[in-house]
Each structure stands twice: as structure tokens, then as C-alpha cells.
Amino acid sequence: MNVPQRSESSAPSSKAKARPEPREQLFTIGDLAKEFSVSLRTLRFYEDRGLLSPYRDGTARFYREEDKSRLILILKGKQLGFTLGEIRDMLATKRGSLQPPTALSLNPEQIATQISHLERQRAEIEEAIEELRAAHKRLITPA
């Protein structure tokens, strides 16, 4: 994709990244939304929270490969039940790391804590399901 020439009045915001290299492959917000099955609103929300920092040309957003890698990590973190604040911390820790670009920066304590948290959630969900099944059964069973 060719990057549009930036006019003097469309300087990027302080959160936005510097102008991309001429040969750098860029992706629009629509490209990322489609590829990762997320909404445009979700991508804008992640940008507002400082998790993604696309190059801005006026109102247009252009994402780099680095942004795609960050989005993979954000979505993996959400899948594993981490908050956006926790994910932001992981992304900050990841900078300069030797780990693959799509590997979360987790320590054993974080993993154990998250497992415990998810197990508690699962128990609460299973209890709620049982309560609903019992209520459903009472309602459909003749007296």
C-alpha cells in the first residue's frame, strides 16, 4: 500500500508513530479489522488506551507489521483473561525482549495467578448454570 503524502495541517498526534519508511508495508484499519475479526471500534479503543499506535495521516490510520504483532498479543491476552492494563504491562515488558514477536511476556507467578483466577471464574459459571438449570426444570415440570 502506498502511504498518502501528509499535508502540513495533518501532523500526527503525539501518540502516533513517525512517518513510515517508503517501502514499509502498511495496513488500513479495515485491513486489520477484517484479518483479525475485530471491529473498527475495537481497534480505535486499543489505540485510545495506548495499546496500538498507528501512523496517522489526517483521520486515516496506517498500521505496520509491528502493530499486527501487538494486536496478536492483545487478543491472546484477552483470550487468556488478562485485563487491558495487564496486557499493556506485558507489552511494555516485551519491548527489547528476545521472545518471538507473538509470545506474551509472562512469568510463572503471573501464569499461576491467572490459572487460579480462571478456575474461580469457571466454578462461579458452573454454579450459575446449575442454578439456571434447576430454575428451568421447576418452570417446565408440571406440579
TrEMBL record:
Gene Ontology MF terms in the entry: DNA binding; DNA-binding transcription factor activity
Gene3D superfamilies for this protein: 1.10.1660.10
PANTHER family in the record: MERR-FAMILY TRANSCRIPTIONAL REGULATOR, REDOX-CYCLING DRUG-SENSING TRANSCRIPTIONAL ACTIVATOR SOXR
PROSITE patterns (alphabetical): HTH_MERR_2
Coiled coil: 111-138
Species of the source: Lichenifustis flavocetrariae
Annotated ranges, domain HTH merR-type: 26-93
Protein name: MerR family transcriptional regulator
InterPro entries in the record: DNA-bd_dom_put_sf, MerR-type_HTH_dom, MerR_fam
Entry keyword set: Coiled coil, DNA-binding, Repressor, Transcription, Transcription regulation
Region spans: Disordered: 1-24
Keyword match Transcription: yes
Any Pfam family the entry gives: MerR_1
Low complexity compositional bias, start-end: 1-15
